[in-house]
Write a structure and sequence with these properties.
The protein has 267 residues and is an alpha/beta fold. The protein has a domain of 132 residues: Rossmann fold (3-Layer(aba) Sandwich). The chain contains ten helices and ten strands. Strands 6-7-8-3-9-10 form a six-stranded mixed β-sheet, sandwiched between helices. A hairpin with a 4-residue loop joins strand 9 and strand 10. Helix 4 crosses helix 5. The chain is globular and about 55 Å long. The termini are far apart. The relative contact order is 0.17. Bound molecules: adenosine-5'-triphosphate and magnesium ion (MG). Magnesium ion binds next to helix 1.
């Protein structure tokens, strides 16, 4: 497993009708292999942009990203992506969705079936291989998305609000699944979320980002993700130490949003 290094990354989008958006300004950080980083911040602060740059879907305007010391120049199987929803192949079975990556690298579906079965097991979907995607609930579809990502055995899993479309109970269950996958595979994870609670329970490192231009404003190293592997997450979330950080981040984001609204109103 290899560490991630983001070095002085800047991203400016040029708009078709002129003008530009400074989406990220001088973002730098190192992430050791095997850590779970959550990115949190108000809408438009550049979370998706940063994730897409790490994935290699976007080239930064300045700076660079290295994985294991090697510059990222485009997408790769090393860095798997899980999106919010709707990124599965609706016309293929669950099993074929999961075998997509291996098939793209030249393997035959039937040859990877044992691997598909074990991945179905890992994400709690035993026996669902022959179902069509549209037959599954939103939570189950996200389980398939996780399995499809794992099938490529990436170094790093990148997730853009993977649980954002789920109901509260399913979301909690999926948080536990992500934590156990992280612990069992030892893979690095970078996960974007809008939920402060989710960022704190999943992140063993949490970055709070700020907009205009997008940047990392606060960094927290927290014990809750590791503790949630053996303790009840709901009890952890109710604890004073958890609530204290949650309140601090919530009021920080609240202030940022007030500021943004103030600026917009004054424009
Ligand atoms: N392709 C694009 N062209 C122009 N501007 C863009 C483009 N993609 C993003 N932006 C702008 O860059 C800024 C950062 O966008 P980004 O999608 O990374 O934010 P985000 O933090 O993921 O927001 P959200 O929480 O709403 O998903 C925003 O101001 C957005 O409008
Ligand atoms: Mg986004």
């Amino acid at each position: 497993m290899e560490s991630l290094s983001v070095q002085n990354v800047d991203m400016v989008y040029n708009l078709p009708k002129g003008g530009s958006v400074h989406a990220l300004s001088d973002v730098s950080f190192d992430l050791e292999a095997g850590r779970l980083l959550t990115l949190l911040g108000p809408s438009g602060c550049g979370k998706t942009t940063l994730l897409n740059i790490i994935a290699g879907f976007l080239a930064p305007t300045a700076g660079q990203v290295l994985l294991g010391g090697v510059p990222v120049t485009g997408p790769s199987r090393d860095r798997g992506m899980v999106f919010q929803q709707g990124a599965l192949f609706e016309w293929q079975s669950v099993a074929k969705n999961i075998s997509f990556g291996p098939r793209m690298s030249g393997k035959k579906h039937k040859d990877v079936l044992p691997e598909v079965e074990s991945l179905l097991d890992v994400v709690g979907l035993q026996g669902f291989g022959d179902k069509q995607v549209y037959e599954l609930s939103g939570g189950m579809q996200q389980r398939v998305a996780l399995a499809r990502c794992l099938a490529n055995d990436p170094q790093m899993m990148l997730m853009d609000e993977p649980l954002g479309a789920l109901d509260a109970l399913t979301r909690e269950k999926m948080q536990s699944l992500i934590l156990s996958l992280w612990a069992e595979t030892g893979k690095s994870v970078v996960l974007v979320t809008h939920s402060v609670e989710e960022a704190l329970i999943l992140g063993d490192v949490v970055f709070v980002m700020a907009p205009r231009p997008g940047r990392i404003e606060k960094v927290y190293e927290l014990p809750f993700a590791k503790r949630a592997l053996t303790e009840d997450p709901r009890t952890l979330k109710a604890g004073d130490d958890f609530q204290e950080v949650k309140e601090e981040i919530l009021s920080f984001i609240w202030e940022m949003e007030e500021e943004i609204m103030g600026t917009e109103a004054g424009q």
